[in-house]
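pinging the channel bc i need a second pair of eyes. not urgent but kinda urgent?? the chain im working w is below, pasted from the shared doc
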Amino acid sequence: MSLSVTAFRQRRVRRPPDTVQDRERWARRKVGIAWALLFLNALTFYPGLSFVHIPSAVGKGITQSALVAAFFVALTVNRHIILRPNVFLCLVSILAIEAFFTLPQAQHFGTVYRTFRLAGFVTTLWLLTPWWGRRDMLLVRCHLATLLALLSSVLLGLLVSPGHALFEGRLSGAIWPIPSTEVAHYTAITIGLVIVLWFCGHLRGRVTLVVIAVAFPTLVLTHTRTALAAMVAAILVAGLSLLVAKARVRKLFIAGAALAVIVISTLSGVLTTWLARGEGTHELTDLTGRTLVWGELLSFPRDKFQEIFGFGLSNASFNGLSIDSNWYASYQDQGLFGVAVCATILLFLLVTAYFQPRGVRRALALFLVTYCLVASFTEVGFTDVSPYMLDLTVAASLLVPAVTDREPP
């Protein structure tokens, strides 16, 4: 009797053979949830765009509470608080620390809140560093899945309420209020990631074709020139890094060059009309009013401290007008010091990618960094919490030494 009870207890205590696999699966899911929550926190809530009435307090409460949820989810998956050292997050942390220097001169509660929000955001990114450098490129998968979910909501809103989705002739989010420029950003990143993954044989041709067939018309409907130009430039840079190693890239570049010549020669009028968006010569030369804001920003009086460290984190606006440039917004919020750190971040990622071996990781990183570099001139970028910071984080995670795809100890 005692022998049978002992054997039964041994069978109960014995761990099933798939415990490690289950733990790894749950870890991947938690990382994906934390990443999606970070992305939700980086979204800007614009009341009035959605056909569903979402009060401003409720919408902003959802986006801002997502950071707290992301931090605790990341903490549950990294309970021992293992941090993987890397230069990229050290530079981003310098931006967060520098933001605290300007708090004594803060005139609005929003500056204080954004400073602590940036610190919490960067801390959560640090908690996810043990999953950098994985051979399965977990953060790339999480990033792409989040982008596809956002684009699916935009397309669903277009089907349900085309009047709200195509407000003022540009596609925006009708379910969750996403402006057309952000829709273009997410669509362009999705297209570029899918194309680069197909370049390297990590995606089937049919899947790539379906994604592009849906995403490219979405990008066209947004009428956003910055996203289109940044995507084309980034795909070219990523493709050139694979030109020697991948035959399909060489074939595609030849076919693409021939197609571009045909399209430009036959549809130049249509392309010019689409790029002009009904704007006159004056509006095109001053970048739809952006240069006027930039000129007023540079001429605004400031003391030596404000010139070096800025006025503190804001909503990237000046006199009620959007700045629409990462570099001018960085100068306004964090001064010349912030501009120098932003330039160092991009330079570090580009130099690191240059010394990486040819392959999918290097190509994906080059695509993301090049896109953010081109878009940063006319879009608010990675000085504060934004999807651009998440794009660069994914690029940095691809440039660290590879580790085995196992749960960190």
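so Residues 21-398 form one domain. and Residues 1-14 have pLDDT under 50 and may be disordered. — does that match what u expected or am i reading it wrong
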